[in-house]
Design brief:
This protein is an alpha+beta fold. It has helices spanning 30-34, 43-48, 67-89, 153-172, 174-178, 183-186, 194-202, 212-215, 285-290, and strands spanning 38-40, 55-57, 104-112, 134-135, 224-226, 232-243, 246-261, 271-284, 294-303, 347-349.
């Protein structure tokens, strides 16, 4: 019998045998056929003779490319188009605008009623304070965290923790008080207040919204130094709800600082400086998750201070000497003078120590 691998009629003349056919191992599978650059016309297309040729290019002819490459090209084109669109439509130098209620500040310097005298014992300046004051955050009077109508006890606790941290950094931290540190307080603020805060610390002004001393207690480090890092505090914090999505916390504290002139001095006199600071803080659910808060209102009364000194950049204490300092009398306020802002007022300081 003949070789079953040969054609029935034998090997055609001029053909090659199986042993000589080096292309017999090539398999023209479906993937090979799909990858072909050209495709033979169907019988119907050849009979129609519409194309005038025996083959046609596949896909885009010479520009044909694999599907993954085509998909990648499409993504690149769409990304470029989006970049061009947003680059043209977005305003240049856009900043996050304050959202919701902006901070409103009320500053009232308290002029001394008589001679400003130094603390009786400069080594223990707080010895004459009445009962009720504590050191630092121990005097904040934070309430127990209990659930409200729309917030759980744990959520209220997180809001209280954020407020306590803000009070510590804005009222007690030496770097804030006398070293011009502003970044730590900034980290606690909601994003919508950052532009207002930056404007207040970079260019403070007396317009009820851009006083640096509304956000924090601070003194001019070139003029004032802390006689001790301890601050005596007394007051309370209350928790309520502004609405179903916002906690409202109100703080009202009196803080007593022991101050002396900056630099070296032979006079050991220490001045007790009192600041009453009532602050309203809102914490939304989004800010609660982010550990941030919104400072809405800050009412500050501080003395002994001269009535005529600006208080927007730094609080301006009237520092005592061992012999005492006799201040000038507070200026009279003319209620018919509309050229002077109505919020610029001055009070008279009562006794700090008992």
């Amino acid at each position: 019998m003949g070789d079953p691998r040969e054609p029935p009629g034998g090997t055609p003349e001029g053909g090659s045998s199986d042993n000589d056919d080096e292309f017999r191992s090539v398999v023209f599978d479906e993937s090979f056929v799909r990858a072909a650059r050209i495709q033979e016309l169907s019988a119907q297309e050849r009979l129609a003779g519409a194309l005038g040729r025996a083959t046609r290019p596949r896909g885009w002819g010479r520009l044909a490319m694999p599907r993954p490459a085509l998909a990648l090209l499409l993504v690149v084109v769409l990304a470029f188009a989006a970049a061009v669109y947003f680059g043209i439509s977005a305003p240049r130098g856009q900043v996050v605008q304050p959202s919701g209620t902006q901070l409103t500040v009320s500053l009232t310097p308290l002029a001394p009623a008589g001679t400003v005298t130094a603390a009786a014992d400069h080594a223990a300046p707080f010895a004459g304070l009445p009962a009720g004051y504590a050191d630092g955050s121990a005097g904040f009077g934070l309430p127990a965290a209990t659930a409200t109508a729309h917030f759980t006890g744990s959520q209220v606790q997180r809001a209280l923790d954020s407020v306590q941290q803000y009070l510590v950094l804005s009222e007690l931290a030496p770097a804030t008080l006398t070293a011009n540190e502003t970044a730590q307080v900034r980290k606690l603020l909601t994003a919508g207040e950052l532009a207002q805060y930056d404007d207040s610390t970079n260019a403070p002004r007396d317009d009820q919204h851009h006083a640096a001393t509304g956000w924090m207690v601070r003194f001019d480090p070139g003029q004032v130094a802390l006689a001790t890092d301890t601050v005596r505090t007394a007051g309370s914090v209350h928790v309520g709800e502004l609405d179903a999505d916002t906690l409202e916390l109100t703080t009202d504290h009196t803080l007593v600082y022991a101050l002396r002139p900056a630099g070296t001095t032979s006079d050991p006199a220490v001045t007790l400086y009192a600041v009453r600071r009532a602050v309203r803080v809102d914490v939304s659910r989004a800010d609660l998750d982010a550990g941030r808060l919104r400072v809405v209102d800050a009412a500050v009364q501080a003395g002994p201070s001269p009535c005529t000194a600006g208080q927007t950049d730094y609080l301006q204490p009237l520092l005592a000497t061992t012999a005492g300092v006799r201040p000038s009398s507070p200026p009279a306020v003319d209620p018919t003078d509309h050229g002077r802002p109505a919020w610029q007022t001055c009070g008279v300081l009562g006794a700090i120590a008992g």
